[in-house]
Design brief:
This protein is an alpha+beta fold. The protein is built from eleven helices and eleven strands. The N and C termini lie far apart (109 Å).
């Protein structure tokens, strides 16, 4: 039981594999090949000259080196590119992750785990177009090289736009982009079936959970301080990133940021919501115009009284206020009317 627990723990915790430099091994192997060729020639000459056992021993050493050691040494050489990793297994057991750009030599019996492709499991059959473009051994070798290296680069995930109901029940169309990278290679490879598909599904789920907490827009006066999807994009993005991170921690993925790339009402209510926004804008504009007009009328009456330009009774003040309000609040230019008579 203790052995099973330890094995499970090792399979979900990244271990950086310490490997020897590959260039010295490669040079030694090439020198060994040249030496074995020399031994082979020397053994043949010895057999022809003396026919003794010494020539046979030399031939045996040369042949043995070509049969086993030379291929094992070549099989243990690995090349790692920048921001890539090889997740190594030995007879089915995870032994470590080979990181850092360079040329390395590892146990020849170690195998790099296959990296799953987005949109399908690692064991899925290749697409027909890929099958037609490659044939035979070339197709197998290319597919193996493409699947063995786990990318550690920062990548962007942009799922399809979704229709989700906001806090008020209004259907909206929203799309996001998630910036992420693989943080723990062991978890990404062994704790989930396909870490890219897992991230995509969890991003959609987190987006639905977050959108339901906010209205599309806060328009009422009493809700002026309420957070909304349109007005509080930074806070929504931060909560969205935290929600996704909590869901993909098991896959060894780090979420750098998540941002809303598209936000709009669904087509079935877009026209009605546009009319509502237009009506709200008109009311706000009218309110501002009336407040300004009242201030201007008040200032005009104070200036007239201050400089004793004309003495106005209450009825004349009311008439002047009415005329000024019509002029200042009207949608069209005022048409002046000259009164040559008296108000009485």
């Amino acid at each position: 039981m203790e052995y099973e627990k330890n094995t499970a723990r090792e399979a979900t915790e990244e271990v950086v594999l310490k490997a020897a430099k590959g260039m010295p091994i490669l040079i030694l192997n090439i020198l060994g090949i040249l030496a074995s060729i020399g031994l082979f020639v020397w053994g043949i000459i010895s057999l022809e000259d003396s026919g003794g056992a010494f020539g046979g021993i030399l031939l045996g050493i040369a042949i043995f080196y070509w049969v086993l050691p030379v291929w094992l040494l070549f099989a243990g050489l690995r090349v790692v590119h920048p921001n890539e990793a090889l997740v190594m297994t030995l007879f089915g057991k995870y032994v470590g992750t080979l990181k850092g750009a360079g040329f390395y030599f590892v146990n020849p019996f170690m195998v790099a785990a296959a990296v799953p492709k987005a949109g399908g499991n690692s064991g899925d059959a290749p697409a027909k177009e890929e099958t037609d473009s490659l044939t035979g051994a070339a197709k197998t070798a290319t597919a193996a090289l493409a699947k063995k290296r786990l990318s550690l680069k920062t990548m962007a995930l942009s799922n399809n736009k979704q229709k989700i109901n906001d806090k008020l029940g209004n259907p909206i169309i929203i799309g996001i982009v998630v910036i992420w990278r693989v943080k723990d290679t062991a978890k990404a490879m062994f704790d989930v079936d396909n870490y890219m598909d897992y991230l995509s599904i969890q991003s959609d789920s987190a987006l639905r959970n977050i959108v339901r907490l906010y209205p599309y827009d806060a328009t009422d006066d009493e809700d002026a301080n309420e957070k909304s999807l349109r007005g509080s994009s930074l806070e929504v993005s931060q909560k969205l990133a935290e929600e996704i991170q909590s869901k993909v921690e098991v896959a060894g993925i780090e979420i750098i940021e998540a941002k809303i790339t598209h936000l709009a009402y669904a087509p079935e209510i877009a026209a009605a919501m546009l009319q509502r926004q237009q009506a709200s804008a008109i009311v706000d504009a009218r309110q501002l115009i009336v407040e300004g007009a009242v201030g201007m009328v008040e200032m005009a009456i104070e200036k007239l009284n201050e400089h004793s330009v004309v003495d106005l009774d209450e009825e004349r003040k009311a008439a002047m206020v009415s005329n000024l309000m019509v002029v200042l609040c009207g949608n069209r230019d005022a048409q002046p009317v000259v009164n040559s008579g008296s108000l009485y």
